[in-house]
Amino acid sequence: MLKRPGEYEPPLGKIWTRAESRMWTITMFSGTCVLYAARASLPICAAAVAKEFAWNKTDSGTVLSCFFWGYAFTQVFAGRIADKYGAEKVLPYSSLAWTMITFFTPHLFDFAYWTNYPLLVLLGIRVLTGVCQAFHIPSLASIVSKHLAATDKGRVFGIVLAGSHWGTVLAGAIGSILIDWIGWRSLFQFVGILSLIWCWIFRWVLDRNKGTGGGRSSPQPEGEVLIDKKHDTIESHLSANNPCPSVPWGTLFRHPAFWAAAIAQYTGGNSYSILFNWLPSYFHETFPSAKGVVYNVVPSLAIVITSLVAPVLASRALAEGKTVTYTRKLMEGASLLGIALCLMLVPMTSSFWFTLLIFTMAMAARGLHHGGVSVNPHDFAPNHAGSVFGVFNACGAITGFVGVYIAGHILEATNNNWSYVFIVTAAQCIVGAMIYTLLGTGQKII
């Protein structure tokens, strides 16, 4: 088959050395960190922004959720573009775009209220931000899939995804202080500057490692290549070495295990999206005397720890002879059922510290997802990880505009009765755990 002009052809013989793997893991981890710091900025300062612009709960839910309209519907396209033309070519441009939007968000909000249609302009700004950020995770999935042996992909990608929670901690800790001292606008500018620094670092890593992540081959020192000689297969190398084939979507979509994983991704993503977007507002309203730097940081610290531990636990289980399917089901089941239990306990307490503990445990349970469904695309679609992860990420991102938007309506209709939001979310997690336990798999599908 002839290669079309400009089409990306993955490199030949490019499994990363250990040194290259460390450099790329740190770079991708830090990139995910600043991306999520940017994404968390508006939820963290939502109460202050809502007060300034006189938003009700429906307005807040709409503005928070519309980010995911652009994010979710761009995922599949973003994954395919990353697989086809090279994530290393796509990522610098998309990253610079969302970085600029983040830095200028306060000015764009002011501009929106200068026009005659402020809400419409705000929706456009948020949707565009989602579109630009949609390329990040599928691009990283594509990079990892092409440059690591099969036994290393899940561990490295799990660590990279853990950067999302570090970003939330960063935005929560620094943002709470900036909002109190300077105002909510300073948070966006701080995160925007950090993101711009990362864009420069990523460009430097690309230039330094041309032939590694950049798509050209280079010699590998004997004994340094990250290949498990016992478990690695020719197929895993072909997934990194061959030009990007078309994705057999029909085969994938007809397999019940794919839909089980997609449902688990959706239900887990729904719980995380609601906590991610609404938790600062919940604590601000329910416990007005509590310090934002506490409730914006402590739950996220828990998920940071478990999201880093989960890939290690999963790798250890595999090393001990457990099957991939058993390991994925164990990790994802513990994650979803743990979240459900915690959310059902929230309406039973009125203590700030006990409530904080419950939400911290819920976020910790969510971190176990990084040893479960989060890395499933590498299991059942090793040759199409970017494209399939785009579909998966879309399933999780849809909850961002459905779940977050509906939560805003529930709160508006029930006079801010948060119990309804948490119970409905818990029920969905239980359903997701049951379906994935029955039908999920860690075997190759396509």
TrEMBL record:
What is any one of the record's Gene Ontology cellular component terms? Answer: membrane
Q: Where in the cell is it found?
A: Membrane
Pfam families linked: MFS_1 (PF07690)
Example of a GO biological process term: ATP transport
Location (main, coarse): membrane
Give any GO molecular function from the UniProt entry: secondary active transmembrane transporter activity
Segments passing through the bilayer: 24-49, 61-78, 90-109, 121-144, 156-181, 187-206, 293-314, 334-364, 385-406, 418-439
Q: What is this protein called?
A: CBN-VNUT-1 protein
Organism this protein belongs to = Caenorhabditis brenneri (Nematode worm)
Provide the organism lineage as a comma list: Eukaryota, Metazoa, Ecdysozoa, Nematoda, Chromadorea
Per UniProt, what is the name of the gene that codes for the protein in this document?
Answer: Cbn-vnut-1
